[in-house]
Sequence to fold (367 residues):
Amino acid sequence: MSAMTDSAGEYLAAVRKHLADLPPDEVADILADISPQIQEAAGESDVPLAERLGPPRQYAEELRAAAGFPSPPLTGAVIARFAVYSLVFASVVAVWAGYLNMWATRQDARAGIAPAFIVLAALLLGASVVIASRLGSSVSSVVALPEVQWARTSIARAPAGVRAYYRSVQPGWWLARGLLIALPVLTIHGPSALWVVFLLAQAVLAVLVGPRTRTDRRWLWISVPITGYAIGTAVLLLAIWSGNEVTLTGDGISFMDRWPM
Amino acid sequence: VEISQLLKGVLDLAVLAVLHEQDGYGYDVVRRLRAAGLDDIGDASVYGTLRRLFNAGLLTSYVVASDEGPHRKYYSLNDAGRQSMTESARTWRGFAETMTELVEKV
Fold:
């Protein structure tokens, strides 16, 4: 008899595992509902439960579908790694793209191989956004990666005051990065309409997405590359400022005639 | 047409109707649906439907102590559930009448 009870316990534990992303109260309610039948079924026959009720995963999926819960989040280190490394790569390339800003959009020869990298980064980012959207709002499989754990403990070693300060200025940064991204629109002569739309859309996104990253970590896949782009823009503007004489002419502010190399 | 396909849209109503008759715990609802002749419903679909109706505020639940085995969680219709059931039942009857008339000539 105890072996049969064990098999009910195993089956229930396996179902629970496939519901693990749901709120704990909901999972407890579901298990309370399904336990009587599964325990009875385990006592009735020696045929494994998975053969009579279907594999636990399928049972959990059928229940989720009928209950209207979202599909289970993706798990697994390989997928989590792809998502996080694509994010890092895309964010680094975004700094570059922000720095090149007008060059790339003007198809200037000086942009070199940058467009190829930017397209690759955009594709990887697109794929990782799709994946991240299925990781669950706390992206637990990413957090579980050893390298992410290591990064988190490193950050946790910073003095509490510093971390609290960073957190308090973060909303200011979300606004500032939006302005920073939009700034080139105001400072270049005759920007293309497409480029203006791209920058302004990104600026609005920069401001809107920031607060969401605190409650839903998946937004980081949008927010971090935007921060990269804003940093690149800041470097570009600084380079222009230091390398050019800023003059105020009748046409407006003019300092875009010589490009930093 | 597979009966399971037809059932998808009306499982809510079936569960509400069973609970309207009498409060019940999950397994109870499964058994009463089967006894009524709905053999093709997956168990997990019934449990999932119960949770969805509960989370939508159509059901309330209460726990009843049991002498043998663990406590049982009973579901019962609340006012919103009864109202939803009445509306769905009206829709269903109209639909069933239409379909019956249509297939009569087959």
